[in-house]
Amino acid sequence: MTRRTFNPGRALAWVAMAVVIVVTVFPFWWMVRTALTPAADIYTDNASLLPEHPTLINFLRVLGLTTEAEARAAGGSGAHLDFAGYLWNSIVYCGLIAAVQTLFCAMAGYAFARLRFPGRDLVFAIVIAALMVPPIFTLLPNFILVKDLGWMNTMAGMVAPTILMTPFAVFFLRQFFLSLPRDVEEAAILDGNGPWGIFWRIALPMSRGPLITIGLTTTVWAWKDYLWPLLVGRDEENRLVTVALGVFLQQSPNTQPDWTGLMAASTLSVLPVLLLLVFVGKRLVQSLNFTGSK
Amino acid sequence: MSSTKPRDDRRAAWLFLLPVLVGFAVFYGYPAARGVWYSVTDYNMLNTATYVGAENYTKLLRDEQFWNAMLVTAWYVVLNIGSQTLLALGIASLMHRLTRSVVLRATLLLPWLVPNVTIGLLWMWLLDTNLGFVNQLLHTVGVGPVGFFTDETWAMPTVAGINTWAYTGYTALLLYAGMLQIPQYLYEGASIDGAGEWRMFRRITLPLLRPVLALVLVVSLIGSFQIFDTIAVTTKGGPVSATQVIYYFIYLQAFKYFHLGYAAAAAVFLALILGVLTAIQMRLLRASRSDLA
Amino acid sequence: MIRTSRVGAALLTLAVAAGLAACGSTEEEPGAAVTLDYWLWDDNQKASYQQCADEFTKANPNITIKISQAAWNEYWQNLTTQIAAGDAPDVWTNQGSYYPQFVSSGQILDIQPYVTADKVDLSQYQGGLADLFTKGDQRFGLPKDWDTMALVYNTEHLKAQGIDAASLANLTWNPTDGGTFEQLIAKATVDEKGRNGLDPAFDKTKVKVFGYLPEWADGSQGQNGWGNLAASNGFTYLDKNPWGTQYKYDDPKLAQTIDWFKSLSAKGYAPALDKASTLSRDSLLNAGKGAITFAGSWMINSYLGEGAKLKFAFAPLPAGPQGRKTAINGLSDAIWAGTKHKDEAWKWVKFLGSADCQNIVGGNGVVFPAIKTASEKALAAHTAKGRDVKVFVDEAAAPGGTFFVPITEHGNEVSQLVQDAIQSAILGQSDSATALKKANDQVNALFK
Asked: C106 — alpha (psi -120 to 50), left (phi > 0) or beta?
């Protein structure tokens, strides 16, 4: 942090970073740019970085702030989204999954990394093997289960398959608990802590970084979930933001999606998670700086 | 058993594992077991499954489309692991050693936040042969047009490129989280000893990152074998079957042709291959050991 | 309160998943109000059917219709999953490629007894449509709408090329020299220097506007292109339709047709497949990158809608050696065999298939309803908006001028096999005759 002298290696590294950023951001910009383009211009105005006639109409119609006739004139189907309602559903959905799943997977990850019991590696291997089960095979049995439980069109049915665990989160947290220094743990045992005490008072606080990372990761994945919530939570009152994007997709064969509406709605759907990322990211850096300086 | 052994936490361990094991059994184990059962039946989703022995498997081994799918998938895996994982490692190191800016990190994660249904469509729009911005750009420099999705040679690299765009930031984030676990004093010490960045990367970052690197490699490998979304939206397996990856093959068999038994056999086959590859990776990377602990 | 109960319900997941709660399903008491689930995929038509549903509920106060709409791909995946799980919608919209599978697995209710009992007039529908949804003496749906094909062209571009719009009314086509249709396409093709395709100096490597835009992702039916021309060349898809079991894709008349399309790309009149756009053809026409293509009547609003920047018009398909042939296709409404409310579902399907509902749909001018008089309403609605779409109706009514796209089992598999074969022929991986012969053998093997 104190070296500020010019260093060709660092300059080169910054150049590489800049290239990466441009490649990363450009397509994203194209999404926003398309959202700002009037539907009528979409096929002709596609060679410049900025739209010729920028407009907010697509955002307005997606949010339902236009009349149906105006929305149709702007290239939409007249469908509008109850964005606030979907947003709330998405927040509940992601919040539940992220919080509960992270806790349970941390417990399991810790057990696999640090506790000693017969069959540990075998059980771990079996749980990890779940990564290889194709989601299209879990779709039908899970759907039947949720239906038999009477959870169709409920939040319970929507979160059920992912709230307890994902193999990835278990794997991720186990790998991080593996690298916790053992000496701290030994000291805690000498202080008379049991496994739960060590996990709760030592392991979890020391793994704030990985926990926040996996919590964020889980939130974003849950935010983007599409097929399952579409199947189980199709009704208006349970609809998630991404599920609502379906109205902008290709409605019948040989037709095209509602490009400008889709891009506007997608842009809106990115904003909440982006804010979360920046906000939590700031705290994450602070907390890491804290542990890093020990 | 032996009271001389240092510790046995089995009672606590099973309690720690309980919720995860329940979730595993109900939402993964049971469906997987059903899948294995379907693979030896003539199940078509709408009938009662009847046992047919190894018929699906023998048919699979003779199916040209299946082998083509395996080959195409292997090509994708090479392209994707090559670009996405290496790039992510590079970006994570840059983030780690260069800057800790949150805005920068969020920027790199932007593509990952774009809904899956939008990613494929966005790129179809950008890369279209006639109307896409990229081809317009190529045209002004006198190249093209390139049929990114319709030219057999380009289709698969294009799909790999799109997924690299969409998920590199995320992979980098995971690696970066691993790098942050590495104590800062190790770098400071090495720096005082006059070690350059490259040397520190090889001697400190890579070895200490091993558990996380192993995780990322294993998950990326399995994930890239399961590539589906982007293909379903953009090329639909075409042109002809140049991008008909194994997962798309399974999807077609299951949901379009209603050969669920056959699709299950292909899935079991795929899972076996992945299992072997994962086991090899874990062994090679000594994934369960950390040099830190 | 809803919020807390939702959170509570989610937490309950844990308890139940752990096996603490038993599963139970709710049974409805008889005689109570009934809600029917009705599914469709086209968001543009949802409003029309909502109107129908409201009318229906007015007449049958104890039956409420709950309409669910999902985009095309998701629609079929969800429908299949829900049928497999024994929890399908009571009534849903069917289309040819999936419907046979549901019929042969006994998922669709045979409505012939109802049709007989209620004396539904089947002659009110556009010719032959009602028979598409029969198998033996059984009937699996009432027709709701139909579509035919026409040429769509960029009027200003053609005028600028000195082409008289009236000349498009009587185009001819043959697989050897393409007839006046190919002449038209050549004239409409323009290179970057402004020369058209008939000009000896025409540069086929630098084409600015393609005369014709082909559709190569067109399944086994070629509804958006080759199917119509092959049929006008004397090609028939299969031994009988619906429910044939012997396809004839190895017919040389089809291979000739494909070769003619291929020659268009070779001459620079149409984009080659490996340089083709993946966006829909109407996007390219709207961008002025193409002049002419085939359009289905379901695309009318895309071409003639208020938003369109360029002016388009429709013309009849060219007449081939066997005359002018257009594919005609129709959708139907089906009742799930497992529904708890068969009688109510039939009432709704009967209403959907009646003039009362189809006039509403026709009046909104989105699709052509199956009932002839309702089709005329749709035509009138279009005319009132200043859209000339008579060609679709005329073609549908022309004796011997239509053919039904095949409805058989294994529809999706046949589709993939034939589409791949045609693409490989177009890409030059194989010649058309060989590729189609091989695909035909594979297709027919499915029925053994």
From this structure: left
